[in-house]
Design goal:
four-stranded parallel β-sheet; 428 residues; homodimer; 16 strands; 20% strand; alpha/beta; 15 helices; Aldehyde Dehydrogenase, Chain A, domain 2; Aldehyde Dehydrogenase, Chain A, domain 1
Chain lengths: 428, 428
């Protein structure tokens, strides 16, 4: 932090400190703003996104035609691109968040003590959240809205490749805040693409930032985890597994594997490795292989798996540790649930795993012994998503163990305080 | 971390890494150990503490007669000293923790989705916890037991001044683990007083430590917050306030203030500042002042407060920001609940505050607008304690906002995972 301060332009340091102080002040106001006022701001922001669609698309075109866009992969360009449908979906997303229950003020737990004290645990905002993301401009709307819903002030720092798109979306959020009488500092976007600004944000801006939520690829997460001097709610890779137990229904298993791998290959909940009981290779593997090959998926298997179908290529050791985010699946034969668990514990990233089985003992063992954020039985790993969990929206899937785990929605961006009601009690 | 590695003796670095790996292995076993086995270990450890009382007291005498003990304050010597009663209380504390419900495996929440998925949020351990504490040797038993109860492996690092006492207590915990068939690496104590070992622990031992819990004074907490490269559950100072509103019952307010200040002055939940409505100075202050002076408390007031009683000394600006941990109370007159809230928001540490009032509007405002971890109405701030909250025991009172807040008991040392039960669902 001191090193980065020394090398930072004084103008940026002062600007970032102003942003931090503005966020801190907004946070103390926001903690007391009514649900109605927050929802009014969100609905008005959604209206503004729809009304300013042309401006947003023009800004997006500016990003897409910038020199640096030429260096982006096809997948990144797809993430960056907006169209009528994506802008409309963004507005609907903000409206959905407005429709969620307000987590703030909820009584999470309450109990009485023998001495008559009544104790309530009540949800409060975290304070100021710094969100660092990459090419998807819609994160601006999602993250800004979720933070506002949960009573937090937010400092947004999007990727430089989506700077103009994010700025145009941010202007709509600001309009929403204004129309509801909430200070604009509640949702700030860092108005520069300088990397120094990220370093300063990670330093915590002298106590003005309570938590950092990074959303992006491995390089971003690695930088955040190394440099952050405030708590981080991390989102690491999703090396997700599907395990097909010998007791699985053949057709159901094939449907689940196909969906887990191919519905969308670029999301963190996409399956990357299939484990299958050796005793099920002859019965269960053919339907799975046919479905995947028909869908255009490349398959890489160990010796026993390759022996079943010549269209399967041999897997290398690194295949068990690779998050392809692409139409490739590694397949390995195992001798029962214990071996499947051992493989996942060794190679997995603790994100999401699914077991296809009708044997309840195997399912219970899988659920009990594995320690991933999400474990599923007879369902696709692609359900690893805040919306699918009923949270309305998410900032990402937390793979750390501190504070929150799994999909991070509005409720996960909160803390709590204790309210204790007495009648004159003193402690003996 | 790299700096501390470079200057660290190679022997210590290797030893610490072994401790980390041992803890990581123990953690993955512990997550699956039954409640009965954990409780058996705790009850056996308590038995061992009682049986080895003489050894523990001899080790304590060794600490108390060491040269460095001569540099300790009276309060620190008191914290360090053990006697028959304190050893018995330590054993009872461990037995109480054995008697608590096991948090691990508890279903925290469950719900159904429209597509038929049934989602459960189930409590799991955090993993490996590093606990850094100072002179109180009983923290060895409390922290070790709470971590075991919550299925976490723990690496204990006590103060060098209590090294022999903590080692003797740790031997009893190890005996308990052994008799229940749990690996000794579940509760490890760093077998050196070298400060390098602390630096290495704070580095996270290459991913072997999930969270650090510091328990001690400001210097310790500051070092931990600067150097830690893993999440920290922090325990900052308790600059606790009692606010006496004009509507308070006079006698009740005096009882609460006396208890909040004087029951024990050295704990973080002790009151340090009294705020009192200016309109209540004549009616409420005399009983409070008499009770406190009779109990031997020094009083320091602002001009209006001093004007009420010549035995009250004038307060300086620094009195509003001082955690005395001693028989001294700062007193300030305020004009109603809004001024009281503003004073606490500016000078408080966000730990614990109490309002004495019968006016429910004032209480609601105090509870709503203040954002301390614990807010009490008509009750002493000294109830800020895990045992008093019904948690059985605590490692401390967390003043941060991430992961947990307020008393940290077994439940607060946990994370969760999601178990999703399907019937073949794929995501559209």
């Amino acid at each position: 932090m001191s090193a980065s301060s020394q090398s930072t332009e004084p103008g940026i340091a002062a600007m970032m400190q102003d942003i931090g102080l503005g966020a801190r002040n907004a946070a103390s106001l926001l903690a007391r703003v009514s649900s109605e006022q927050k929802n009014e701001a969100l609905l008005s922001a959604a209206k503004s996104i729809r009304a300013r669609k042309d401006e947003i698309l023009a800004a997006n075109l500016q990003d897409l035609s910038a020199p640096k866009a030429k260096q982006l992969s096809a997948a990144m360009l797809d993430r960056l691109s907006l169209d009528d449908g994506r802008v409309a979906a963004m507005a609907s997303g903000v409206e959905e968040i407005a429709g969620l229950a307000d987590p703030i003020g909820q009584i999470i737990a309450e109990w009485d003590r023998p001495n008559g004290l009544h104790i309530q645990r009540v949800r409060v905002p975290l304070g100021v959240i710094g969100i660092i993301y990459e090419s998807r401009p819609n994160v601006t709307a999602d993250a800004g809205s979720l933070c506002l819903k949960s009573g937090n002030a937010v400092i947004l720092r999007g990727g430089s490749e989506s700077y103009y798109s994010s700025s145009a979306i941010h202007a709509c959020l600001e309009e929403g805040l204004k129309s509801a009488g909430i200070p604009g500092d509640a949702i700030q976007m860092i108005p520069t693409t300088s990397r120094d600004a990220v370093g300063l944000l990670l330093s915590g801006l002298n106590g003005c930032v309570d938590v950092i939520v990074p959303r992006g690829g491995k390089n971003l997460i690695a930088r955040v985890q190394t440099d952050a001097r405030v708590p981080v709610i991390g989102h690491l890779e999703g090396l997700c597994h599907v395990y097909v137990h010998a007791s699985a229904d053949v057709q159901q298993a094939a449907d689940i594997v196909l969906n887990a791998k191919m519905r969308r290959t670029g999301i963190c909940g996409a399956a990357e490795t299939l484990l299958i009981d050796r005793s099920a290779l002859a019965t269960h593997l053919p339907s799975i292989v046919n479905a995947l090959l028909d869908a255009g998926c490349e398959l890489r298997g160990d010796d026993d798996v390759c022996g079943q179908d010549e269209r399967i290529k041999p897997a290398q050791t690194e295949d068990w540790t690779t998050e392809y985010l692409d139409a490739i699946l590694a397949i390995k034969a195992v001798d029962g649930v214990d071996q499947a668990i051992a493989h996942i514990a060794r190679y997995g990233s603790g994100h999401t795993e699914s077991i296809c089985a009708s044997d309840t003992t195997a399912v219970e063992k899988f659920f009990h012994d594995l320690d991933s954020a999400i474990l599923l039985h007879n369902a696709s790993t692609q359900f690893a998503d805040g919306g699918e969990f009923g949270m309305g929206a998410e900032i990402g899937i937390a793979t750390g163990r501190i504070h929150t785990r799994g999909p991070v929605g509005a409720e996960q961006l909160t803390s709590y305080k204790y309210l204790v009601h007495g009648t004159g009690q003193t402690r003996p």
